Amino acid sequence: MKIGILSRNQSLYSTRRLIEAAQQRGHEVAVIDALRCYMNINSSEPEIHFKGQQLSGFDAIVPRIGASVTFYGCAVLRQFEMMGVYPLNESVAITRSRDKLRSLQLLSRKGVGMPITGFASKPDDVKDLLEMVGGTPVVIKLLEGTQGIGVVLAETRKAAESVIEAFMGLKANIMVQEYIKEAGGADIRCFVIGDRVIAAMKRQAQEGEFRSNLHRGGSATLVKISPEERRTAIAAAKAMGLNVAGVDLLRSERGPLVMEVNSSPGLEGIEKATGKDIASMIISFIEKNAAAKRTATRGKG
Ligand SMILES: Nc1ncnc2c1ncn2[C@@H]1O[C@H](COP(=O)(O)OP(=O)(O)O)[C@@H](O)[C@H]1O
Ligand SMILES: [Mg+2]
User: Fold this and answer.
1) Is the CB of 265 under 6 A from ligand 1?
2) Are 145 and 177 in contact (CB under 8 A)?
3) Ligand 2 mean position, distance from CA 204 (Å)
4) Is residue 219 located within the same domain as residue 259?
5) Is residue 186 domain-shared with residue 279, that is, in the same domain?
6) Averaged over 27-33, what is the pLDDT?
7) Residue 301 has what pLDDT?
8) Whole-angstrom Cα distance, residue 221 to residue 188?
9) Domain limits at 145?
């Protein structure tokens, strides 16, 4: 097959591993920087050009779209979809998962467990907003944040009110969430491919920190997950419509709670923590599904 990887930089660990795995399995691979693509949108023959050449003949695209290039990256992926190329994750599912509010609303509709969460833009009654989620301590998050930046633990009502007012002053949309203390500064990253969790790791925040992000100094180890955690992760990926997803769970007294669903989950932390060749599992999934799609399309005539 000819597989395109939408990535800005081919020296990134995940991109490198996907190239390696695809080549090992006998595929042709090209890394495409979405920002440098330009497109011709028309009804008869949609085109994508890159470095002066028309991109054609691709069987599948692996989107590795960074948070900062979601808008244009998804537009390029959508163009590939219009050309009949199989996307590992569909552009519409990626767009969905990038919006934390929309994601949690979708998960709640499917009955997937999550921390009690309030959303606000300009709340006229901060006290009521805090009571709505069960009072302090609360976690306050910027809707657009990643890597733990913009996630604050407010232990008292006074602290919570100040933080909410400060974020409001910056005209930021915020999320106010029940603090899951019993998670003990850890979360579980479940790596979903298709309808299976193929690897899981526990990320533990460093001493004195409640955010377990590896970018914030958290450490990752192999973990065995429960059947309920497995079901929750698969249900969350399915609710978002993602074939490949990193589902982050908090272990709470009332069972697993989904914090977020990542549509371009990194491979480095999870491959190192579990020793699994996840890149090859992804390519193998593409082999099965891109081929099935081609047959189905042919069938339709
Ligand atoms: N409601 C919560 N209760 C306990 N810990 C939380 C809660 N929300 C977030 N955390 C901790 O903070 C980290 C970062 O939060 P997250 O929502 O994943 O933001 P980001 O998108 O920036 O990673 C999580 O990995 C988790 O360890
Ligand atoms: Mg996170």
Assistant:
1) no
2) no
3) 12
4) yes
5) yes
6) 97
7) 43
8) 10
9) 117-179
Tokens representing 127 are 């006290």
**Residue 149 and residue 100 in one domain:** no
Please state, for a pLDDT cut of 70, what percent of the chain lies above it.
Answer: 97
pLDDT digits (tens, 9 = 90+) for 95-111: 999 988 899 999 999 99
Residue 203 lies in a domain: yes
Cβ(145) – ligand 1 distance below 6 Å = yes
- 217: CB partners within 8 A, 6+ apart: 205, 206, 209
Q: Which residues pair with 196 in a beta bridge?
A: 193
Question: pLDDT digit string (tens) for 53-98?
Answer: 999 999 999 999 988 899 999 999 999 999 999 999 999 999 999 9
Q: Mark whether 230 and 168 lie in a shared domain.
A: no
Residue 107 CB burial class (10 angstroms; 0-12, 13-18, ≥19): buried
Residue 297 lies in a domain: no
Of all protein residues, the one whose alpha carbon is nearest to atom 24 of ligand 1 is: 211
**Region 117-143 average pLDDT:** 90
| Greatest alpha-carbon span in the chain | 65
- Give the orientation angle of helix 13-24 with respect to helix 278-300, to 10 degrees: 60
Which amino acid residue places its CA nearest to atom 19 of ligand 1? 148
Give the model's pLDDT for residue 145.
Answer: 74
- Residue-level length of the chain: 301
Peptide bond into 256 cis (omega under 30): no
| Residue 300 pLDDT | 45
Given a contact cutoff of 8 angstroms between Cβ atoms, the answer to whether 88 and 146 are in contact is no
Backbone angles phi, psi at 169, to 5 degrees: -60, -30
Q: What is the pTM of this model?
A: 0.94
- Calculate mean pLDDT across residues 212-235: 95
Among 31-45, 231-245, 250-264, the range scoring the smallest mean pLDDT is 31-45
Task: Kindly state if the Cβ of 139 falls inside 6 Å of ligand 1.
Answer: yes
CATH of the domain at 60: 3.40.50.20
Residues 72 and 186 both lie in one domain: no
Q: Count CA atoms closer than 13 A to 127's CA, side-chain side.
A: 0
